[in-house]
Amino acid sequence: MPSLVVVGTQWGDEGKGKYVDLLSERMQVVVRYGGGHNAGHTVVVGEDKFVLHIIPSGILHPGVVCVIGNGCVVDPDAFLAEIEKLGKQGIQVGDNLLLSDRAQLILSYHRLQEAREEERLGARRIGTTCRGIGPAYEDKIGRRGLRVGDLRHPDFMRQKLDYLVREKTEALGIPEQAAKLRASIDETLKRFRDVALPHVTDTSLFIYRAMEAGKDVLFEGAQATLLDIDHGTYPFVTSSHPTAGGAATGSGISPKALDFILGITKAYITRVGAGPLPTEMTEPLGETIREKGAEYGASTGRPRRCGWFDSVVVRYAKRINGLDALAITKLDVLDSLDEIKICTHYDYRGERIDEFPGEISILAECEPVYETLPGWKVATEGTSRLEALPENARKYIARLETLCGSPVAMISTGPARSATILDMDTRSLSGLERWLPRH
Ligand code: IMP
After folding, report:
1. Average pLDDT in the 1-23 region?
2. I need a surface site. Which of 8, 30, 65, 155 has the fewest CB within 10 A?
3. How many CB atoms lie within 10 A of CB 356?
């Protein structure tokens, strides 16, 4: 039962979509195990660019069955819009998509709740994607959420919505809008039910049987380690478990069934939304990287904050996720720099800190300590062989491996599938070769 988990090791937007797409070529099943349409996984195929939000990135490969697992939150409108958009781009969604009967629904009152909460927080706001993700997970944990499987029980759903819409509109101070809100939710759910129900099943059982039959399964993480509700920079986090452990609970399979855990790591670091980012670059350098790396949110279009590679963060991600290897992205974005910094550890009030702190009040006071490596000043975009990389770029990668304590199995040098270095010495990484694309 060979399985691979792909997780983000930083604050998201590492380029997971590209690797999931590449590694899906030889998979039979690809499972999203958490989050919702707050994710924006970009895949470039030839001239075409696809941005997947809730549908797994494996959908671009014929023959792959994609699963939206029980750990996900699904916005019916966003789900329908994504299927329609994919159809216009020539990707048909049919038997190749399964949706867990246990996934939670995001409804319009969740978005209203979130907008209200962010407004209330003012300067202390989280800077969420405003997709209703947090409030939907709150309802799940509060045991009042609606699940996809409830679509099969219209009476139950109607009764629950009677109560929920009344409660939500009262809490929001808009009780007079209850009837209108309810009508629009009913209309959305009707459209969703027609399209979604044929995809709805017990996906935990489906994955279990697929694994039993020896099929290859990829678990596609969304968001990232430092956005994890427990292990991230709380409260500046998302409301789910993007870390590798979430792959088990978010898809209903045993943790023993997770074989290889691959951490996706940008060659520098970015963050969108509020919260500490110790290695944040000062301007105008941050702006240069943002423009060269097109660092704007794939879901919200917001500019991302850019920083130097932080090995404290990735070492932490290695420990929390049990990473077997790293896959680097966007190395080419650093091509023009004279010098490149890597944060080796932090200084907190004169004390050396090697382990990522649990409290953001401490993190906010941590000063990154850097070592500086010479840049390579040669264009690497599109490079697909390790020996074609300039020596200084190889030294940079080797240093990241040492500082993070994890081998680098792949390097991406551009958005295209072909712009990927796969001829790394992966012999020590027994298991991963099985899924490497042959190009
Ligand atoms: P939420 O997931 O919309 O609740 O947002 C919570 C935090 O996670 C905010 O800082 C978002 O910017 C961040 N976030 C959520 N999804 C992503 C993502 O896919 N990439 C990067 N950041 C994300």
Report:
1. 94
2. 155
3. 24
